[in-house]
Design goal:
Length: 349
Amino acid sequence: MSDTEIIARIENGVGRITLNRPKAIHALNRAMCEAMIAALLDWREDATVRSVLIDHAGERGFCAGGDIRMIADSGAGDGVDAKAFFMAEYRLNALMFGYSKPITAIVDGIVMGGGVGISEPADVRIATERTTYAMPETGIGLYPEVGGGWFLPRLPGQTGVWIGLTGARLKAADTVALGIHTHFMPFENVDALKADLLAEGADPAAVAARHAGDAGPAPLAAHREAIDRLFAFVTVEDIFAALEADGSDWASAQLATLKTKSPTSLKVTLRHIREGAKAATFDANMAVEYAVSGRIGATHDFQEGVRAVIVDKDNAPRWSPADLSGVSDATLDALFAPLPENQKWTPLA
């Protein structure tokens, strides 16, 4: 493999992008996003390119997220580098979402945060038995962005709220059942799938269907009724109260998990998902995310979450405010306020 973090080439009429930062589980930085954008723009106008394939080098996973450490460092200062990264990343997400040619993402191994952002817009999303999917942002003082405000509320019932608030990690049986991923196949079949995709690039969905297998029963199915009932509320406080009143082992476990998360992040996440459900377009959602993300990097909880999870790794963040009652509507309103016209996120032409 090349030392280049993004390897983009055309193979038999298929534009192929390989994420190539394996030591960081392909965590996205601005240069990677811009390289992917450049390739996709070139291929969009190239009549010889029939579809796009996104895969990754190495064994650990597809993409663990974005460059969180850089975002925190930038947020502690003037925030310029973080905003430039978000501008590029969200433009990439939007370019993929509205792309004129079918995109296939082979989501093997870890796919979290920014990795979700570059796989959910794909037409064909293939999981394997090694796939672990999550949006774990509330555990580091962030919120599920990269299109999370669009994709999560459009999952069945209240599953998107549950995923966004708890940061739950799902395997392929659940992700395929929920529609997060379109196909399951054993990892041992992936090389044969890639060979056929590169030979028959015009119809990747048909190729994937030939190789797809049964992911097995979805463990989450047993809890879907409880999720839809207990996570249907407008406030996080009401969700907490419902979980406590339910009293089942499962509900108690969800409540215990939520109590470890940033109270500010929980409230930001719930507002974002509820408002995202009403977004008219994907681009409108991304404009909101750009405004919120540009501000949240400077907050105490994001700085503290990165310290606890990524820098010191003591996994003991000290959130402030420490409980939900300390997070005011005014705080949320300030984070979600529209940006001035000359600072707003815009999609690529």
